[in-house]
């Protein structure tokens, strides 16, 4: 739930700043990019801080190799993606790439939902987690498509 809260609050704060005259956030796609970047900093940092890192490693499906390395790589990609969202020339590519990354990482959530004893931080019910994921991917697509000029 923290990532969703970060997305919503980051977006609303950015849009408010735009309404107050900050030209950088002059529209909803840019405000959503800031909210999405905020969310990705929250989730990206979680890839490196226990107990969340340990929990993320635990939900990597067993058929995938090197779970620790995969969690590290995805954390780095999320942080780089957040930076890309904030740099207007890179924003469309970053947003679309992040949408793909989120879709690629989603099977770990399915695996966690089916685990008999998932880590406590990963116990979100799959329908709710799926809905959240659709919001995140949708936000990335709004940013990616709304930033093309």
Automatic annotation (TrEMBL):
- For this protein, the parts annotated as crossing the membrane are 27-49, 69-87, 93-111, 131-148
Q: Keywords in UniProt for this one?
A: Membrane, Transmembrane, Transmembrane helix
Q: Tell me what this protein is called.
A: DoxX family protein
Q: Does the keyword Membrane apply?
A: yes
